[in-house]
Structure formats: C-alpha cells, structure tokens
Amino acid sequence: MYKYFTNEQQNTYEFNAHKSYTLNQSEVERQAFISGSTDETLSKYYHFARINFYLSGSEYTANNPLFNTVPTIGDKKQQSGIFLNKFYESGSICFVSQSQFNEGIKPGSFSLTDTTTTARLVDDKKGNLYSTNATFSQSVSSLSSVDNYVGNIFYDIGAFSITETASFDGSNDYTDVTSGDYNVEYKGSNLITTYEWTCEALPNELNNTSNFTVFNSNGRGQLKDNLTGSNVPTYITEVGLYDEQNSLMGYAKLSKPIPKSTKIPMRFNVRMDY
Predict the structure, then answer these.
(1) Which residue, 54, 81, 254, 263, is most buried by CB atoms nearer than 10 A?
(2) Are 72 and 53 in contact (CB under 8 A)?
(3) Which of 187, 188, 189, 185 minimizes the C-alpha distance to 27?
(4) What pTM was estimated for this model as a whole?
(5) Which H/E stretch holds residue 60?
(6) Nearest-5° angle of CA 258, CA 264, CA 270?
(7) Does residue 259 register a pLDDT over 50?
C-alpha cells in the first residue's frame, strides 16, 4: 500500500503573492518627532529616525563607535535611487504591523490619502514619496525628483516617513499630513513555497482496497459474498503522504472515487502551499 517517491517525482518552487490592504489612521502607528524637544518622546523618535534611517555610514560610526561601520537602513538603500537629503528637525514616521504586509510592501503600490489636508502621496518604486496633487510643487521637473519628494517608504519593514516641512497648498504644511484622518493603500508581499509530488500507480500496483466495509466480519480478511470475483474494481478516494515511519503527514481527497486501472499507469499530482 506504500510507495517511495523518486527525486524526479518531487518538486519545490516559490512565487510571490500580493494581497491588497486598505488601512485607516487607527491601524497605523504614527510618531511625530522634533529635534531638541522638551517632550522626551518627540526627541527620542527624532534620534530613532535619524540613526536608523537617515545617517550615512560614516556619520553612524562617528556617532556610535560601538557599532563600528554597521550601515543604517537608509545607507543600505542609498544605491537603489532613494533620496535621503530631506531630514529636518521635525517630521513624522509611521509603522504598519507586519501582519498587515507580511514580507514587505510591494514597490509602486503604496498611496496615502489625507482627508484633513486633501494631500495624496504615492511611492515611485524606489523608496520616495511624492504628492500627486500639491498646489505648491517643490520642483517643476518630473515627480521622481530629488527636489520635490516629501518623504520615504522602507518597503521591507513596513515604515514610511514624512520629512518635508514646506507648504502643501498654502495653508497646510507637509508636517500636517498624517496628523488627522487618512487612509493608506498598498499591496503586501508574501513568499509562497509550493511542494509538488507526482503519485504514480502502475497497472500491477495498489490494486487492493483498504476499505474495511468490504470484508466479512469473521476477521479473516475475506471479501463479502457479493464482492467476490476478479471483476470487482478498487476505487481510489484519497492519496496519503507518509513519513519514513509510515505516519500519515497529510492527504489529498479526490472529488469523487476513481476506479483503479489494471491496464494503464495512473498519476495524481499533489500540491501543498506554505
């Protein structure tokens, strides 16, 4: 009743799946920061953002000699087209729970709509945030500009920051964005690992049933009188996967019983996703 798999009958492959999320301000952790503030929390988050996101490697070493030359998140991303030159004395940084993005936010899928200031920010796939409806633009060049970006997004850890301090529309500053009601939309990435087994039954294999209801109750393993004869077929109802100790690890149940052929090989492909 058991068969071992060959290497050719086992396969593993991976792919990225993306799930869309829409969160409001109550589902995003926001922390404002101000350098030198008498409010200890505001001051701490300024140093947190500066050290973890915006210091270069040389500055990091000078400020934290115990850490030697360990690069910051911002420094590691420097080569990917992210702009990190706009880090001023005030701003805000927001965090999404990992359960809401899994292994990262898909680049190019993020948008933030602030219902208080009417600002709408999107990412440029490189880690920069831009306003798509600013009355006062920081640059007349393309949106992907070192001049007119207003913050950053760090895809791998589900964090984004608003660091521009200029005016958005003449009455609201970018520092006001995310201070009231807002929504964020994005796609979370999830790496799916698929295991696939090809289960093969040759004509001369697995032709006996394990269904106890077909046997007499005398305990001798004899078929019931109405099921004797060579023309009684065996039906396949499920395929089980067992470990080396013959312990059942999982099974695939067929949508309907299938007669076992004694003339041609039969193959069942079983897939399991993690």
Answers:
(1) 54
(2) yes
(3) 185
(4) 0.70
(5) helix 57-63
(6) 50
(7) yes
Which residue's structure tokens are 């798509």?
132
Point out which residues pair with 105 in neighbouring strands.
Answer: 188
Task: Considering only residues 270 and 78, tell me which one the structure prediction assigns the higher pLDDT.
Answer: 270
**Look-up of token digits 């988050």:** 45
pLDDT tens-digit readout, 150-181: 999 999 889 999 999 988 888 888 888 899 89
- CA 140 and chain centroid, separation: 36
Q: CA 82 to CA 128: how far, in whole Å?
A: 6
Q: How confident is residue 74, by pLDDT bands cut at 50, 70 and 90?
A: very low
What pLDDT, on the 0 to 100 scale, is given for residue 72?
53
For residue 94, how many other CB atoms are within 10 A of its CB? 21
Nearest C-alpha neighbor of 159 from the set 239, 273, 77 = 77
Q: Which residue type occupies 238?
A: E
Q: Give the sign of the dihedral formed by CA 243, CA 248, CA 253, CA 259.
A: positive
> What DSSP string runs through 192-226?
EEEEEEEEEE-TTSS-S---GGGB-TTSS-PBPGG
Cα 245-193-159 angle, rounded to 5 deg: 135
